[in-house]
TrEMBL record:
Coiled coil: none annotated. Transmembrane segments: none annotated. GO terms for biological process: methylation. This is tRNA (Cmo5U34)-methyltransferase. Pfam families: Methyltransf_12 (PF08242). Its EC number is 2.1.1.-. It comes from the Bacteria. It is an enzyme of class 2 (transferase).
Length: 234
């Protein structure tokens, strides 16, 4: 994630992230848990594995769930936002798995590619990257750090928000369901839209993945604009 995208995730946003993200994404915890389940189904839950987690700052839900399923899995977690990475580290420590997770402040391109990973995860990042080229670059950087055949879980918003006004209205109503006022809803929706640039369609996601040498996309979770897919490195 570039610095200007990462700057949105400051200390204020980090402090409210755990609650706000679970409202913004209906099924937030289910997505993270299913990510762990998909990895375990592909890798085998009892086999050793090194897993790269890109944009790991926040709840670290995908790491915590995966560590429960894969007792022999280790993780490298990278994020360019220091407040968000610190939040993840606190949650990882509370889960008692800090010896299995190496947290790095920076971008995926900062991680050496000489020792390829057995799997990778990137949740909630792609739609914050402006332009198709930046999205393609991040996916390529992940791809070259994976073993052939390795699974990669990608999750985030797809489809332009303006293309689905009914989904946008439902999204706003979800905030109302959780007690937000009309002015509060406007503020929340404005924050969601701030700097967001989701791929225009699922087909666009698949095209980006294919160009980065990923194949066989399988969507295993969906929620309004959000999708989660498992693919394999060619």
């Amino acid at each position: 994630m570039p610095e200007d995208s990462a700057a949105k995730f400051d200390a204020v946003r980090a402090n409210e992230y755990a609650r706000q993200s679970r409202i913004a994404l209906a099924g937030y915890d289910a997505c993270h848990e299913l990510t762990a389940c998909m990895l375990a189904a592909h890798l085998g839950h009892d086999r050793p594995a090194r897993i790269l987690v890109v944009g790991a700052g926040g709840t670290a839900g995908e790491i915590i769930a995966s560590a429960k399923l894969g007792p022999n899995w280790d993780f490298i977690a990278v994020d360019p936002s220091e407040p968000m990475l610190e939040l993840a580290q606190r949650n990882i420590a509370e889960a008692g798995i800090q010896t299995r997770v190496q947290c790095m402040l920076g971008n995926v391109s900062d991680i050496p590619a000489q020792e390829p990973f057995d799997a990778a995860v990137m949740i909630g990042v792609l739609h914050h990257l402006p332009g198709a080229q930046m999205k393609a670059d991040v996916l390529k950087q992940i791809s070259i750090r994976l073993k052939p055949g390795a699974p990669f879980v990608l999750a985030g918003n797809y489809r332009t928000y303006a293309s689905q006004p009914l989904l946008m209205a439902a999204w706003a109503e979800r905030w109302r369901l959780h007690g937000a006022s009309s002015s509060g809803i406007e503020a929340k929706m404005a924050k969601i839209l701030q700097g967001a640039d989701p791929p225009v369609s699922e087909e666009a996601v698949f095209s980006l993945l294919s160009a980065a040498r990923f194949e066989a996309p399988l969507r295993f979770f969906s929620s309004l604009f959000w999708g989660a897919w498992l693919v394999q490195r060619v």
